[in-house]
Design a protein that fits this description.
About 35% of the residues lie in helices and about 20% in strands. The protein is α/β, with parallel strands linked by helices and about 725 residues long. The strands form 8 sheets. A 7-stranded mixed β-sheet has the order 5-2-1-6-7-11-10, with helices on both faces. The chain has a 7-stranded mixed β-sheet with strand order 16-13-12-17-18-22-21, with helices on both faces.
């Protein structure tokens, strides 16, 4: 466990936006993870307490003076055009020397290393810097061992990165050293950033040149709307790209950053001076940018803010949202019937705020004038995609090259490397909330536990699999069971692994909600998720327990008082039991609904023939799975024709040489049966399938997905946990 780490970020006029707020985003994001526990203390300092970045709002900071060194464990020096002037400012360079002497680590981004070199701090040390300025800097400070081919370098306590976006990779490396690889990776995942782990892998070592000309006769009006606790990278990543386009002889953007409050605080970062919110709708708006942030949820219910947003959207030629910024528009019904996306971590929650066609697996989505992106870093990709669409591919490539940013270049944003992050992040959120409420209210927390599976049933399955050539099926722990399921593969039968997993699931116990004061701590764990503590905090539309958990969490955070009825073990235990009963009843209703829809499907289609796989031999016949239709059922076998050997799990024909074993493939006939108004589906055995007749797994899967859409047109996707 590390102690508190004070990170001092030095700002100055004309500092580079992404040099600062890319790293700051990762640091602030890491700080809210359970492993970091708020140990990172970010301090932004500037001479006179104010700094103006290139093409961004004025930044309020602590004064850079003699007191700054009193709390400086890590020093972060960004780059920017302002470094050209500061390299000759001996007073500023002396302040850097003092801070560097105090700091345990000194990090520089882009031409921030120029300032360290000018202060004599890098003499004899390995370092790197921005590619576009590399030759000039290397010639002016030859005592430094400059590395051109490097994403970042380390030499003792000095860590330096290449241009702009490379500072984000350097910060990821710093977090990995500080907290470990798992925490660093989760920080990057929360920002939906594809990080580079190799400092020597530098895609920008050979700079490209572009011949760009501004096709517009007048500057374009870019309005950015921020609010208390807005996300830094959401905002300044896109602004960095548009600012760089301006400097590359591309279109000129006049940036107006507006907010309800003149001084507005970012999440985990500094305060900024903004123009009045109402001024955003004054004049033309070529592009309106709405970043995300935890303040989104508050502003959705702010009538002044909402009215101003509606006025600006009506005037804007294009509207761009990053992360949860799309929820602001959705809450005002501005995205109705449009394809949109938002960040992965809070996707289910954001989708509640208004009617829209939410796309969970997209990096970004465009629908007419509305451009919406997924979480945090995806907004920077979206800004380049918009630039490519409106101003041409050369400008987008040039901006990415100049900022040394590796971006997702697919045409429509559909290829999202974080498409699978939603379930993982939801699980981690549930785990973190469980730990928080248990630590605060150990006697009446509401958690969810999943007991280990039924041992006798797993032993039966183990014996069954052994008879079918799978000898190494072990289940001493959830890790052993998981590994066994990974190994349960037959190359000649691609359906085998799926069936084994289904059969294993049948051996599991039911997960239940419980009051922590009524159960021994040794029984708190969730077997299926391999978590010591777990609850249901996410997806409030699907969970009875969420209301209790949210109230407990609010009280544990000190933002609400805990209701009296939630301070009684007996009352909470009674409520948990009611929740468990409701959940079981909902499952029964779901199964009955599935049976009815299956009957309706085959009643409409008529009798169908399909391949099925035997899962179990019972006294009454065979339990089979029909992959093409995604259904199961029991096939009755006439006693006069077949001998059922339940103990040995096979069926023998009495009339001819024929035997049906577990996992055998057979042909069945499926038809609806409405006799006596039962509304059921009947499956009848036809014959055994030969190996040459077996259906292709890929074809069957495609058919099953299509059938499921037709069979359950209104089916809501259920959470697996």
């Amino acid at each position: 466990m590390i102690g508190s780490v004070a990170i001092v970020v030095v700002l100055f006029d004309d500092y580079e936006l992404l040099d600062v707020y890319g790293p700051a985003e990762l640091l602030a994001g890491c700080n809210v993870l359970p492993a970091a526990k708020g140990q990172l203390k970010l301090r932004f300092v500037a001479s006179g307490g104010l700094a103006r970045p290139t093409n961004g709002p004025a930044t309020l900071a602590e004064p850079l003076d003699d007191d700054t060194k009193s709390e400086c464990d890590v020093l972060l020096v960004p780059g920017g055009m302002g470094t050209r002037k500061l390299q000759h400012d001996q007073g500023f360079l002396q302040q850097l020397r003092v801070l560097a002497a105090e700091a345990t680590l000194v990090l520089s981004v882009c031409t921030g290393s120029l300032l360290l070199a000018a202060a004599g701090l890098l003499d004899g040390k390995v370092a790197t810097t921005n590619k576009r300025a590399f030759i000039d800097i290397a010639e002016n400070w030859p005592k430094v061992k400059w590395q051109r081919t490097a994403r970042w370098c380390t030499d003792g306590k000095f860590y330096s990165s290449s241009g702009v976006a490379a500072g984000i990779d350097l910060t990821h490396f710093f977090l990995k050293e500080l907290f470990g690889e798992k925490v660093a990776k989760m920080t990057a995942k929360c920002a939906e950033y594809v990080h580079n782990d190799d400092p020597g892998e530098d895609p920008f070592v050979h700079s490209k040149t572009f011949d760009l000309k501004n096709p517009f006769g007048k500057p374009l009006q870019l309005v950015v709307v921020v609010y208390d606790q807005f996300e830094m990278w959401d905002t300044f990543g896109p602004l960095e790209m548009f600012s760089m386009a301006n400097r590359l002889n591309g279109p000129a953007f006049e940036v107006k950053v507006v907010a309800e409050d003149f001084e507005t605080k970012s999440f985990g970062g500094p305060w900024f001076q903004c123009e009045a919110l109402a001024s955003g709708a004054e004049g033309d708006i070529d592009l309106l940018l709405l970043p995300g942030g935890i303040g989104t949820l508050r502003e959705i219910y702010n009538p002044v803010f909402s009215k101003a947003i509606c006025a600006m959207v009506a005037k804007a030629q294009r509207v761009m949202t990053v992360c949860t910024g799309s929820a602001i528009l959705a809450s005002q019904n501005l995205l109705q019937n449009r394809k949109v996306t938002t960040n992965k971590m809070s996707f289910d929650l954001m989708a509640l705020f208004g009617p829209a066609d939410w796309v969970p697996s997209a990096r970004w989505v465009r629908d007419e004038k509305f451009w919406t992106s997924s979480g945090v870093s995806a907004g920077t990709d979206l800004s380049l995609a918009l630039m490519r669409e409106v101003f041409g591919a050369d400008l987008a490539e040039a901006a990415a090259e100049a900022t040394e940013y590796v971006w997702s270049k697919d045409d429509d944003g559909s290829k999202d490397p974080f498409a699978e992050s939603i379930p993982e992040l939801m699980l981690l959120a549930n785990q973190a909330v469980a730990t928080k409420i248990l630590n605060t209210f150990p006697m009446f927390g509401v958690l969810r536990r999943h007991p280990p599976p039924k041992d006798d049933q797993l032993k039966t399955l183990q014996n069954l699999l052994a008879k079918n050539g799978l000898e190494n099926f072990h289940f001493g722990s959830n890790k052993e069971l998981s590994d066994s399921l990974q190994r349960a593969v037959k190359p000649e039968d691609p359906f085998f692994n799926t069936l084994v997993r289904i059969m294993t699931t049948r051996c599991m116990n039911q997960a239940v909600y419980f009051c922590t004061g009524e159960v021994q701590p040794a029984l708190y764990s969730h077997y299926g998720l391999a978590m010591e503590r777990y609850t249901h905090f996410t997806s409030p539309i699907r969970r009875y327990a969420d209301v209790l958990v949210h109230r407990l969490l609010a009280a544990s955070l000190g933002i609400a008082t805990l209701p009296e009825q939630l301070q009684s073990k007996a009352a909470i235990s009674e409520q948990c039991e009611k929740i468990n009963v409701k959940h079981r009843m909902a499952q029964f209703a779901s199964r009955a609904s599935a049976d009815l829809h299956t009957f309706m499907f085959f009643n409409k289609k008529g009798e169908q023939s399909a391949e099925a796989i035997v899962m179990r031999i019972r006294r009454s016949g065979m339990q089979v799975n029909v992959p093409r239709y995604g259904i199961e059922g029991v096939v009755a076998m006439p006693e006069e024709e077949w001998e059922v050997r339940e103990d040995e799990q096979f069926i023998q024909s009495k009339k001819e040489a024929g035997r049906i074993d577990i996992f055998a493939h057979i042909i069945v006939t499926i038809q609806s049966d409405n006799s006596d108004f039962r509304n059921r589906t009947h499956i009848r055995f036809e014959r055994i399938v030969t190996d040459s007749e077996r259906e292709e797994y890929k074809d069957v899967e495609e058919s099953r997905k299509q059938v499921q859409k037709e069979m359950f047109p209104d089916l809501l996707e259920r959470e697996a946990n």
